[in-house]
User: Fold this.
Amino acid sequence: MLLVAAAIALLGLLVWMGRRPAQGRSLGRLLSGLSSVLLAAAAVYIALRGEWIVSLVCVGLAMWMGRNTAVDRPESVDMSRPKLTDREARDILGVGEDAGRLEITAAYRRLMTRAHPDHGGSTGLAAQLNAARDRLLKPPPR
Assistant:
């Protein structure tokens, strides 16, 4: 019963800390994560003693606190950046001013085989290569 009272007090503290400005939230997340681990361990101990209902309550609290430990992330990340110029796109792909469609495509494929995230490359570099290819191969405006 003492453990349940301590868990309720800790839960109240974490809810209070969650309502504070963003500067105190990192400490709140740390405390929430630590208390989640402690509650999960307490749930195992209580279950071994045969008190299943109290153990299930501790598991539920541990799961709720663990979920609240996650860092807030935006729903969608805007990967937009300023538009590339033709010169920047040619520099990225390593082609000259007089490069045609076939040469641009060949340079893109050659570089993408090394820069693709599935082959150990980075998503940022792959995005730059895609933007450069799209810039150079787009049809001219009418």
Summary: The CA atoms of residues 25 and 95 lie 49 Å apart. The two ends are 77 Å apart (CA to CA). The helical segments are 2-18, 25-48, 52-67, 86-93, 101-115, 123-137.
